[in-house]
């Protein structure tokens, strides 16, 4: 049985090989966060590589999307339909493996990320979706919505203003099934961040109402595992796990520096990293024993089968709710909703009114027909008319 270190090194090797072959990319983050990813994906993440759209899967968001080879390596190793050839075609035209993850190409990519902080916002949105769906559909003993959202984020994500807005909201709403792993490596593409980013991140997130787990060695599987266990005990607030990592871990002459951030390591450093990591295998070669240890298909299939049995009981006891749940998770509009009829009704009066009033008319028509409709207006609802008749605010409860 391969060790955890060997399993993490499979991520490091694929990442540095793909970036080297593409002659561009970001090897540092995947190499630095490989140990965290190994523990999360092998011990905690609920997913089925054979059905990436399983409604009750856990969501994994790579907010620091420049480290995309971390995600592609994980998807390939765990058994998603992402062949080795796609990793070898990293950052090439028409490949599924774009330089930053893009939704709709590689299976298992939950959302497009790249602009720093965006993925963090997406993760908060997905955690809100889980909480609202659970409140609407779960019944005693029949929790058909019960999954976690995990997000990897770096210094750049937390520098962005959007991170303040969404993390404040997450704390206010008590999103206890959201866990963010902060890659605290002290390095950006410009170098040491201490000259321009000196926030006390732990206190910042505590002020938001988050549960903060600081000073976790991001290369120690036992510390990582203990932190995740602790985060999962706090169901009333989101958790931030602050992981101290070494960017480019394993590259002996460049690790811990910006040289690993946004450029290939170079042939000599890749060879040196192989020696440092005790990874004697050829580029893009993964031993069968490591593939077997990573393969998540059988466990994922079993967990989805158990969920489907729960859903079958739910369908018997709550058939109307079950039909509505299926409609939403299959991304279907209500059968009675006609876009042509809706547009005709909105235009029939021919009024000359403010745009915001026209928007409210649309919301008042759509709201009763689309119970999944959710929006916000940054504390301006009376002015911009976004609170349609019958709308209800979401809250911590």
Automatic annotation (TrEMBL):
Cofactor: thiamine diphosphate; Mg(2+)
E.C. no: 2.2.1.1
One annotated Gene Ontology cellular component of this protein: cytosol
Residue stretches making up the Transketolase N-terminal domain: 6-334
A Gene Ontology BP annotation from the UniProt entry: pentose-phosphate shunt
Keywords: Magnesium, Metal-binding, Thiamine pyrophosphate, Transferase
Pfam families attached to this UniProt entry: Transketolase_N
Family label: Belongs to the transketolase family.
Protein name per UniProt: transketolase
Organism: Candidatus Halomonas stercoripullorum
